[in-house]
Amino acid sequence: KSPKLHNALFKSVGLNAVYVPFLTDNLANFLNTYSSPDFVGFSNTMPHKETAISLCHEVDPVAKSIGAVNTIIKRPSDGTLVGYNTDYIGAISAIEDGIRGLQGHKDETVSPLAGRLLVVMGAGGAGRALAFGAKYKG
Questions:
Q1: Percent of the chain residues past pLDDT 70, beyond the cut
Q2: Residue 110 · residue 116 · CB < 8 Å
Q3: For residue 27, which of 48, 71, 86, 131 is within the disulfide window of CB 3.0 to 4.6 Å?
Q4: Over the stretch 77-96, which tens digit does the pLDDT of each residue have?
């Protein structure tokens, strides 16, 4: 779904970019092969989220805490690969919005997850991101 979503967004804002899916079994080889300045970033999914930590030149502190990188940005000035984890923001926000909708209130100052038990099934990068986000939200 990502190419369809991202390419529609690029078009709507007039950005000269394209989101293309690539299948790889070796993330290090992929990053070395696609080192052209034309590639400015990559979405990264299983099974490479944990491996990406060691392949990025810099890793955002949140991604380090989670132990997984799902977004890699190539810094245009020097080609440095910087790893981020956006899984926890997207997933936790969706869960919070769902709970707020069910409860009929829009108070965004306190997370509706605070004080609740959240069960995470899975121990991969996305599962750890959810656990991190839930802990962060109380």
A1: 98
A2: no
A3: 48
A4: 888 999 999 988 888 899 88
For every residue of 35-79, DSSP letters joined together read: -STT--EEE--TTSTTHHHHHSSEE-HHHHHHT---EEEE-TTT-
- Residues tagged active-site: 49
Is the pLDDT assigned to residue 27 strictly greater than 90?
Answer: yes
DSSP-derived secondary structure letter, 12: H
C-alpha closest to that of 91 among 54, 128, 39, 42: 128
Which of 23, 59, 67 minimizes the C-alpha distance to 44? 23
Report the top-level CATH class of 1-86: alpha beta
- How far, in whole angstroms, is CA 88 from its chain's centroid? 7
